[in-house]
Amino acid sequence: MALATTIAAVAVAAVVGAGAGYIWRQKFGKSPKAAEEKIEEKLAAAKEKVAALRKQAETEGATIRATVERELDERRAQLIELEKGVAGREEKLERRLEDVDTRDQDIKSTVAQLAKKEEELTKQLAEEEKQMAEISGLTKEQAETRVMELAEQRTKEDIVRRLHKIEKEGEKELEEKAHNILATVIQRYAASHVAENSTSHVDVPDETMIGRVIGKEGRNIQHLERITGCEIVIDETPNSIMISGFSPIRRQVAKKALEQLLKDGRIHPGRIEEVVEEAKKTINEDIKEAGEAVVYDLGLLDFPPELVQLLGRLKYRTSYRQNVLKHSWEAAHIAAMLAEELGADVNIAKRATLLHDIGKAIDHDVEGNHVEIGEKIMRKYGIDEAIIKAASAHHEDYPFDTVEAIIVQVADAISAARPGARRESLENYIKRMEDLENIASSYDGVSKAYAIYAGREIRVFVTPESVDDLTAIKLSQDIAKQIEQELTYPGDVKVNVIRETRAQSTAH
Q: Residues 456-503: pLDDT tens digits?
């Protein structure tokens, strides 16, 4: 048994040894020496690869080190330049502070000297009054009254001249600053203007279609006028039908419906009602798209959808033939630029200006003026109170609590007063000119009044015997204030009061 076990073990060892030898020969060759040579070759190749990698790493490290050192040198140079600039500014500030201290001391010294001179003049005046009272035999009160009258007469002209000079200087300085700001804003923004008309025209491809539009005994055209609320005028121009109406929405509905009827060819009362309903749906979609386009262009994407829809309705609303939606969009751009120039809140100015006429979207359907209606609409949709106050003050119905409120009014005026933006009918124009002249002529001492430059200036001639220079200045202010309170007009109206004295004599 033991012998058999031994023989089996020897056989297994022989098999294992033979298998190991076979594996060795397959991997390393026929002999251990060949295997060692292969191992040494691989080690040599690995060493060369390691050496190449080490060299590459050293090269890259040197490059990175040089780049970092160069950047550090550049940063050091920049810091040195900044330090020099800061030091220079500190020196300038110190010199300015010294100059301010010196001026302050000079002013204090001047004030002290003036106070001393004033005291001396007061004493001299008291002595002169005493002497005058003794010479004239007047009481102190009578002398004081007389002195005041004489002083007023002597200084009245000087006071008027100084007031006029101060007023002119202040106006000139303010006008220069305002002109610079407005010129910058208008230069940055410019847009064409097209006044809206109260009529639309539809081309008729065939004259026979006009008879079908009219219908038997005019029933088709009468039905179309009744359900659209517009007047359909035919035979004004050949191959054209004019649609007249003061509501742009109704006029656009009538135009689209008439175009569809002419294209379809079926024209009868039932078909007219269907087409008008389809046109109304199309207009509603157009209104929505117009509102979304405006808020997207201005970057105001957080408005409620209902408010955007109301904004779109302004596309079909006009004021002095100016499209209200285009006016609000343009004024919002101008307000944003003005706010940037003046350092005000751009977001509040832009939003308030865009919404300042929102009440006009439904002013035909709700009682109240468009300012009150707009205020209610903005509060209903949760608009910020600062925006509501700025938007509500654009017609001076409310006080200007913030600079953004003033910006809204200025942007509104710029957009409305630009040449070509608005038109008015001949009757309104004549009435406005007459109202300007009547207001100026209602004051005492006015001999003639003429409204010129399309009502942008009114020249008032006064009687020199009844109106002096000081009264003329006050008269111009009173007329301007009354015009602001009673009339509605685009832009500004300049009031010029002219007082002229002529001396005439004849040599014989």
A: 889 999 988 888 888 888 889 999 989 888 887 766 788 999 988 777
Per the CB < 8 A criterion, the answer to whether 225 and 232 are in contact is yes
Q: What one-letter code names the amino acid at 18?
A: A
Locate the domains of the chain by residue range. Answer: 31-105, 199-288, 301-417, 426-499
Residues 315/323, Cβ–Cβ less than 8 Å: yes
CA distance 75 to 193: 53
Query: 301-417, superfamily in CATH?
Result: Hypothetical protein af1432 (1.10.3210.10)
pLDDT in tens, 292-343: 888 888 888 888 888 888 888 888 777 766 788 888 888 888 888 888 888 8
- Count CB-CB contacts under 10 A for residue 212: 17
Pick among 3.30.420.40, 3.30.565.10, 3.40.50.1370, 3.30.1370.10: CATH of 199-288: 3.30.1370.10
pLDDT of 364 reads 63
* The overall pTM is greater than 0.85: no
DSSP 442: T
The rounded distance, in Å, linking the Cα atoms of 465 and 500 is 10
| Confidence label for 182 from pLDDT (cuts 50, 70 and 90) | low
User: What is the distance between the alpha carbons of residues 280 and 277, in angstroms, rounded to a whole number?
Assistant: 5
Neighbours of 470 (CB within 10 A): 14
460 phi/psi in degrees, rounded to 5: -115, 120
Torsion angle, alpha carbons of 127, 133, 134, 140, to 10: -90
Q: Do 478 and 443 meet the contact criterion of CB atoms below 8 Å apart? A: yes
Facing residues of 202 across strands? 241
Q: Count of residues for the chain?
A: 508
Q: Of the candidates 445, 447, 451, 452, which has an alpha carbon nearest to the alpha carbon of residue 469?
A: 445
